[in-house]
Amino acid sequence: MTGSAVDPRISVAREGALTCIRMRGGDQRNQLDESSCAALAGAFTTAADDPGTRVVLLKGMPEFFCSGAAPELMLGDGNDRADQWSRLLLAVLDCPLPTVAAAQGRALGGGLLLALSCDVKVLSRSSRYAANFLVHGFTPIGGSLVPAAMGPALGSEMLYTGRTYRGLELAERGAGVRVVPHEDVDQEASRNAARIAQAPRKSLELMKQQLSSGIREQVKSALAAETAAHLESSLSPESLRRVGMLPGSPGSLHAGE
Question: Phi/psi at 173 (nearest 5 deg)?
Answer without folding.
Answer: -95, 10
